[in-house]
Input
Amino acid sequence: MRSSGADYTHLTVMRDEVVDLIDESSDGVVIDATLGLGGHSEAILSETRLSVVGIDQDSRALEMASERLADLGERFRAVKANFESIKEVVSGISQPVRAIVADLGVSSMQLDDGERGFSFRFDAPLDMRMNTETGRTAAELLADEDEETVANIIYQYGEERKSRRIARYIAERNRAGNPVRTTLDLARLVERAVGKKPGDKIHPATRTFQALRIAVNRELEILEGFLLDSIDALERNGVLAVITFHSLEDRIVKHLFQRAAGKCICPPRIPQCICGAEKIAEIITRKPIVPSEEEQNANPRSRSAKLRAVRKLNDRSQEQ
Output
C-alpha cells in the first residue's frame, strides 16, 4: 500500500461479513455503491478475484479511495455519481454484476471534517451536502422552507418529538432577519428550544442534525429506487448487501427486501395487495447481521449498524 500521508484510519463496518456474502470463486464485478474511503472495496479486491466499480458523489472520497487502492491493480475503477444513478453506472459495465454493496452511514471523514457542517462538534457553515457542488445546503433549506415544512422534516427524519418547537424557534430567527447559518448556532438554538437535562448522553440537537442531513441529501427519498434498480442490475444469483445505521433506513430496506422476496407487507385488513410484492429475490439474512462485540468496542460508531442481504433469483422467463 502506498504511503502518501492520506488518512485511512476510518474503520470499515462489518468488513468480513460483507465479503462472506459474496461468491469469492466467481468472475465479474462488484459495485461498491457508497465507496467512501474504500474499505469494503479493498476487502473485496484483496479476498476475491472480482473487479470493483466504486461509486461516490464526494470528490475528496473518490480521490482518497483511488489512491488507497492504486496498488491493487486495474481491477478497480472509481465513478463520481450518486447511487440513485446505479442504472447509468451499470450500463457502462461490460462484466456481469455479481454483487452490489452499500454502506449507508456517513463516513468518518465527512463527520470529522469540520468544514462540511455535518457535526456540531465544530463551528462551521451549516452545509451537510455529500456533494458540495450541487443542491441546497442545510442553512439554505432552513431559510427557504416554511415553519410547518421544517417541523415535518425534523419529525419524520429525526423522529424528534419537539420538532414543532424547534421549527418555531428557527422561523422566529428567519423573521428577525437573522437565519441560522452555522452548526453551533443551530445546536445552541435546538438546546434552547428543547432543553438539556444534566447527565444526558445524547446532545438534544442530534436528531435535528440527522434529519437535516437526510433531507439535504434526499437519502430516504432515493433509497427504495436504488434498491429496486440494484436487484434488477444483478446477474442471476447476484447479491445485494446493505448496511444501515438508523431505524428509518433499516425499515425501508427490510420492507423492500420482503416485497422482493414475494411477501406482502400491506396492512392485514386491506382486501387486495397494493405493495407490489413479487418474488424476484430470496432473503439470505433472516435476521440482520450486527457487528461483533469486539468490533463495537473498537468502533463505537458501528453499534447501530445492521447488515441485510438478498440474492437475485432466476428471471421468470428462465424459470418457465
Q: What stands out?
A: The longest helix spans residues 219-233. Confidence is low (pLDDT under 50) at residues 1-8, 316-320. The domain at 15-109+220-319 is CATH 3.40.50.150 (Rossmann fold).
